[in-house]
Fold this protein.
Amino acid sequence: MNFVDELRWRGMLHDIMPGTEDQLNSGMTAGYLGFDPTSDSLHVGSLAQIMTLIHFQRAGHKPVALVGGATGMVGDPSGKSAERNLLDETTLNHNVACIHAQLEKFLDFNTGANSAVMVNNYDWFKNFSFLEFIRDVGKYITVNYMMSKDSVKNRLEGGMSFTEFSYQLVQGYDFYYLWKNHGVKLQLGGSDQWGNIVTGTELIRKKDGGEAHAITTQLIKKADGTKFGKTESGNIWLDPKKTSPYKFYQFWLNASDADVKNWIRVFSMKGKEEIEALEQQQDEAPHLRVLQKTLAEEITIRVHSKEDYEQALKSSEILFGKATKENLEQLTDTQLLDIFDGVPTFAISKDKLSAGISILDVLAQETSILPSKGETKKLVSANGIAVNLEKFADVNGMLNADNLINGKYIIVKKGKKDFNLIIAE
């Protein structure tokens, strides 16, 4: 498999430095890509870069994952509107360890000549004095060269610190160090990293007369202009403690038709013919959402597990399918609260419920699910109320502790889609 051709047909390729394909075609090439350690988990935005390294390794090349323990202390101005907060060493070390554990799920670190390697640039910067840095690095790159980069020009009007201004020198030295000490001849990154990457190739050329190469990939965007990988509740993380597998699955399942046609090529491991066949099915019957379902299944299994995918599927059926009370009773508290996150939530006295309360009082007085007992009667009589996914048609009926899921929850559905969560306290 040709790595560059793979990126091209998937729509991932953005820029490539002349001579790069010749280098890749000459044999196994070590190439590195940097990851930001400002959190203890990567997110779906990072997943596009992980896919780049997966394809790189599958093409027979050696991926080097650099976690920026040093650059995380500086802050990259590329694409940013403000300077980031700087992290202390303890936090960074924790984040680096967590990211390493996540990358091991995607890359082969163990076997073969092209097994993946992880490096931390703090290891070569921690004892590098400021005077040594400006003597051994700074003198090779002119201020005019640095000022010409978009990452600098776009921030000059609002002002940028010397710390941020120096970032491209720090990243440039990363490339030089890896080229010099680890035989790395290629840097990979998002399109916003081009300026930083070519600063590295320039440093290698000027300092040692060497040659290095660069490839950048397209930044993932959403068709509606909103930021990829973010929802109303924040980032979509790879760590299940930060974003549950259910919410992760829902993120991909809810992709728009316009977005999923791009995302299936970027994030799926399926080949060209299989993806084109799926795209044709989507065009012929878009209401079946074949691409969304296929991508959500594949990526949830890859990032989490088959069991997590199957549970996410069951959880989705509770909201949109033919699930029963028994399905609700199989959920943990965390899973149940994930599914009903964002629905109207009401508290009710557990003591009152234990004694028994009429359905009319629960819906119209103890909560405000319905505005009045009269409205409640009408809806109950018309089979418009379900309690714990079971129709409740008795206007004289009572709710009690037996109706509690996990001893504390009651799910009330009004009409076809209007869910409400009652929590007994």
Notes: The mean pLDDT is 90. The two ends are 59 Å apart (CA to CA).
